[in-house]
Amino acid sequence: MKTYGVNELRKMFLEFFESKGHLAMKSFSLVPHNDKSLLLINSGMAPLKPYFTGAEIPPRRRVTTCQKCIRTGDIENVGKTARHGTFFEMLGNFSFGDYFKHEAISWSWEFLTEVVGLDPNRLYPSVYEDDDEAFEIWNKEIGIAPERIFRFGKEDNFWEHGAGPCGPCSEIYYDRGEKYGCGKPGCTVGCDCDRYIEVWNNVFTQFENDGNGNYTELVQKNIDTGMGLERLAVVVQDVDSIFDVDTIQALRNKVCEFAGIEYKADPDKDVSIRLITDHIRSATFMISDGIMPTNEGRGYVLRRLIRRAARHGRLLGIQGQFLSKLSETVIEGSKDGYPELEEKQSFIFKVLSQEEEKFNKTIDQGLNILAGMEAEMEAAGKKVLDGKDAFMLYDTYGFPLDLTKEILEEKGCSVDEAGFKASMEEQRVKARTARETTNYMGADATVYDSIDASVTSVFVGYDRLVHESKVTVLTTETEVTEAVSDGEKATIFVEETPFYATMGGQEGDKGVIRTADAEFEVEETIKLLGGKVGHVGKVTKGMFKVGDVVTLEVCPKGRANTCKNHSATHLLQKALKTVLGSHVEQKGSLVTPDRLRFDFAHFAPMTPEEIEKTEALVNEEIQASLPVVTQIMNIEEAKKTGAMALFGEKYSEEVRVVSMGDFSKELCGGTHVANTGAITVFKIVSEAGIAAGVRRIEALTGDGVFRYYKEMEEELKHVSAMLRTTPAELENKVAHLQAEVKTLHSENESLKSKLAQGALGDVMNQVTEIKGVKLLAAQVEGVDMNGLRDLGDDLKNKLGEGVVVLASAKDGKVSLMAMATDGAMKAGAHAGNLIKGIAAIVGGGGGGRPNMAQAGGKNPEKIAEAVAAATGILEGQLH
Predict the structure, then answer these.
(1) What's the rounded Cα separation, in Å, for the pair 385 and 407?
(2) Which among 445, 677, 685, 698 could disulfide-bond with 625, CB atoms 3.0 to 4.6 Å apart, if both were Cys?
(3) Residue 341 to residue 348: CA distance in whole angstroms
(4) What element of type H or E holds 271?
(5) What is the dihedral of CA 439, 443, 444, 450, to 10 degrees?
(6) Contact, 829 vs 877, CB < 8 A?
(7) The pLDDT of residue 464
(8) Strand, coil or helix: what is 494?
């Protein structure tokens, strides 16, 4: 059999499936796109998920890829065995509702036997135990004898991941011969030894699992196949393990050369050789996709890989930094399939060198301290390192927890991981508290404080919205970095930008920053000290690195609307001075794409006539289509031209003077329309006071005005529909309804009064006399306070002279009311004090004047007691 190299096999696979009508797509980034379920891409299918679920339409229904993948689930076994690795390439052919089992099986067989030339007698297929269809295809169509087709259960041959699409698999195993076997009598396909190696896995996605183990047939059936490129190379090249295939062997030999040792001479050293070989592959590819070493997420995976490799370099006696030199060999071996590695090689070397240098400063010290801790543990007979100590190694010496664990495992010890996590949390709380302090300028300390003071940005966006420039600085939310990748929130700084940064009341631009294969959405543009302009937002595709030449594109609609609103603000200021007087002075403004706000000094609310006049004047100047001209001059010249300046504002020596015909002239650094006609129309929507002597106008222009009227119109239609009339008849309808309500209200009050009297009945026989003053204290059912007052007036008239006390309960609440005539008051009666005394009994309070008072309460069951108490209280008041 002819042997092929890794790069040849990759090419052969992709070309074979292209000949079968597949679109060969380049490998996706290791950074998942819009997929929060994964930290790193770990299979050929992972980045194609949107095509499988139907969320996106694939560029073709047949696709083939060679996908770079990283899996860190078995990271602690990497190096210890020759089977495990974190980085691998996954060959795959995919069908999105196109072909199914017949083609998938037949092409996998054709590729392995006819293209690669594997011996058909050494290949053994397996199928899911209930998949008779696949069994028949292998047996009848491909011609494999039934005894050479293995049926396996769900664990081996059914692919599913919780709820969602799933299905049976058919794997192809290759018999590598007795020399790789375990020698046991029953050794066959499925044995754990290295003789029968699985090279291909066809997944037939034909079912939907509802999450409860109920399966339904999918309408669109898909094919997802996977074959590890390195594993195929092991079989084709007939070598021991992935570490012996051509490209990886070259890398392994380079590690041995640096260490001055031979592979397979010392099993302990072999562990380190394999670990470094694997980890540097992962690190090189991760950095090429913009992942940076950090303390969380995928950046932490990278940091762990680099630092583990660096520590194993120490174990092999490699002096100084060596990882970036090793990375050269990775790039040399893989650039055929991944040309971006060569394009980004200087960047990859820089990141590896910086991280290795950082760790080199502390690794030896850290190793010495850990050795001291181990000695103390041994002396105390302990086998578990305290979590606080492990955290100190992490925090001060940069030892990832798994590195400390690995070193201790070599001595048969472990780490208190719960204690480590507790210390980590304690540190987070401290950091959060510290963040609340400020920097020496008195402002909140931010990530931007650590940017080199010499970095600056030039704004070039007065006459253009698209511009090319070079990235000077990148920051994440917490640190200055060399690169940012898909999904990360970041700030990009460039030499020259067309993006206007928020200042002078004008809100910053939004838009997009791009390279050939990356995109960044600018959500906000900010101005920082030293003339720096930060484009704050999120990477939506690919990666950006310092030094990249990027295209910056401002959102044209947003900018155009902001310009309309800003120019209208100038016209508004002049119109206010004309209508209200020259004392009007700008106190603040806000200009966004949606609206404008203008604060000004004025001593009184504007009258409707003044608002109308101001609005009309601005619209006149808009319709006059005045040219908007900007001149750059020194500050003294500008002031001589009569240009309006902001009181208390610091201006540089050179200023921009914006003139709108002969109507307005102001000093302004913002962006404007070229002609006032572009504003189209202006509308004041509110005018209000915000502080003593300061008024605020909110207004709209252009599309904003049309939107405003559209909303008003919709509201008018909606209200008209509710009142079953037309907008034209709405005023008459409302007037009619108001008259109707007035009549009904009057009738209602009259009925309530009659009902209240009916509920009270004839109570004049309950009148008692106390010290010569008549008292009528009575309870009435279901009457509110208004009803009680009306009743009281009526009873007072009937009584002539005296005191009336009424109590009622309605909806669980108590209402109390007392009235005293002039004669009763002269005798000492006081309605307010009387009500206060009885309200306490029903759990309430209240009071009032001597002649009339009312109160509420919350215990209706105590009403009778309260009414009875009125006699004693009144008696105490009378002379």
Answers:
(1) 11
(2) 677
(3) 8
(4) helix 267-288
(5) -50
(6) yes
(7) 95
(8) strand
